[in-house]
């Protein structure tokens, strides 16, 4: 199956109030929101409601305490340690990135800048005067330059579009991540307040966004690409046009997002989530040493590691019946305590109830009874085969990770289809079993993926503990014992109805 190339376009529109956006006709923003979502962002309590700190948080994925941009004077920043996403991708990964902007601190060494240190390609021109009219003219030129690049027009090492220098040597179709800055709404509000001219500037920004989207969709390679679009503002304004304070009008920003796996906004969003989503959309799992503060809201897992019993096949009831038959005096708490555990570990835990000294006969009895029941009665749970089909169609590697023995797993694989899994890990094939991390670490290692970029699908607290110990995000579908939602853990009733959006958002 041919894998589509992933691309991201971030458009930053400065100083657009959410209430103004909601009441104005902005067809291009509205269309993107209909494909994905429009959601408010509240500027962090420690962040000044100024362009410098907010944009730095948007593009670095860390807050002011780390990037050190506290005002529109960037002096004293730590952008060398916490660089913008365009620079990270270009310098650390060798990926092509593009930035187009007209505000000087974003692009040049001015008052401690630039914010964007080393993208692969840039387009910059400053307005001829600090007036709304000059900023509108500047943004027309910036949009012209960005359209030229995004449309995959052929360009040499440096092409002049109007009066804009577009610097960069490689062909535009190599560019994977772009940031385009549109500034006039903010400048208009500063000069004229949030009245008719301000609203007209917002509508013009929407029209420029439409030109950028049209350029992307005109690309000869567009049919073979998957684009994520993120449109974000930095802060709002008071009615008179200023900002920098803590009023709701100033602290309320917003994000429009659309693209693969992006559905309704799943949770309260932060500015730092934008850069995290850029990396996720490109399949780039952040290095832990980046210490990003943001989290993506939709990310294709690099692999999905699936528990077997009670998750994909209806064997938990068979296991509980087996334990009851082997240990008739067992109580409910002890019964649920052995969910998700191997026969050997269950036997150790159940030994005090039997009065025996040796757990091995009980373990052998449990294993034999359970295997017989699985061979006769095991069946896929609702939604299990559809989920495996979705993963196969999406090209996502899968592993089967079970606390059951290899004979039990092999019996189940005859029902599920062994060819659906890139690797399988059964009880006894790692130094420790669940709830230790070993089985999930082994599965990720076999698939050559980072466990932190994997999604584990589990039904028991024991399995969830193992997956989380390995660093995986988790989708929990509780069978008998309850499981509560938590960080990097999503809980849903079952596997039925899981689509791309639910899968991409699980555990984030």
TrEMBL record:
UniProt cross-references to Pfam families, sorted A to Z: Hydrolase, Phosphodiest
Top-level taxonomic group: Bacteria
Organism the protein comes from: Streptomyces sp. R11
SUPFAM superfamilies: Alkaline phosphatase-like, HAD-like
UniProt GO molecular function: hydrolase activity; metal ion binding
Protein name, per record: HAD-IA family hydrolase
Keyword Magnesium carried by entry: yes
Tagged with keyword Hydrolase: yes
NCBIfam families hit by this protein: HAD-SF-IA-v3 (TIGR01509)
Key words, A-Z: Carbohydrate metabolism, Hydrolase, Magnesium, Metal-binding
Cofactor: Mg(2+)
Family: Belongs to the HAD-like hydrolase superfamily. CbbY/CbbZ/Gph/YieH family.
PANTHER family: 6-PHOSPHOGLUCONATE PHOSPHATASE, HEXITOL PHOSPHATASE B
Cited InterPro entries: Alkaline_phosphatase_core_sf, Beta-PGM-like, HAD-like_sf, HAD-SF_hydro_IA, HAD_sf, PGP-like_dom2, Phosphodiest/P_Trfase
